[in-house]
Amino acid sequence: xxxxxxxxxxxxxxxxxxxxxxxxxxxxxxxxxxxxxxxxxxxxxxxxxxxxxxxxxxxxxxxxxxxxxxxxxxxxxxxxxxxxxxxxxxxxxxxxxxxxxxxxxxxxxxxxxxxxxxxxxxxxxxxxxxxxxxxxxxxxxxxxxxxxxxxxxxxxxxxxxxxxxxxxxxxxxxxxxxxxxxxxxxxxxxxxxxxxxxxxxxxxxxxxxxxxxxxxxx
Length: 218
Known about the structure:
Elements: H1 5-17, E1 21-23, E2 29-30, E3 36-37, E4 39-41, H2 50-68, E5 73-77, H3 80-92, E6 96-99, E7 112-113, E8 121-129, H4 133-144, E9 148-157, H5 161-169, E10 174-179, H6 180-189, H7 198-206, H8 208-217
Parallel strand pairs: 5-6, 5-8, 8-9, 9-10
Antiparallel strand pairs: 1-4, 2-3, 6-7
């Protein structure tokens, strides 16, 4: 998982500034899985801020062109990656599609929305990577269509070991604008979190399940 250090810090600053990422060690958030976490990330918030939205779009464009060169199609992962991917495709002058987590049960039963053809090269745009499971479902759907997935770019990754393994196993190159370690460092520097919270925040990234169990049983 590759991240540009300077741009990662600036991206983290933006995410904290617009509260796309929230940190609360004392009163943890409950994820959809039921697990407790000291961090909650909703990068769709960035779309409401033109300066931040433009910065993220341009960073994505730079990553796509510098890492993978020319590409036939940009694909967004539903739902968070749809708007981000469309912005990137517009800037690059490329076709855009988005990929659902599963095929629709009605109508044309599409999983991929938009026009895409066998043999085309694709870069996937995602807003957030946790375990990587949902992101890689999109990659599998594109590969099943006969497309060549060059890689994926995401705004943020929690940097979990399971995600690194899942992307390696799927042979997908992932580049992110920023990551958990960078965000915590910036949060500390700008006093979004207290010094006393750092050990707990680091422990969560190493073993989120144990961290959650300790909070629920404590």
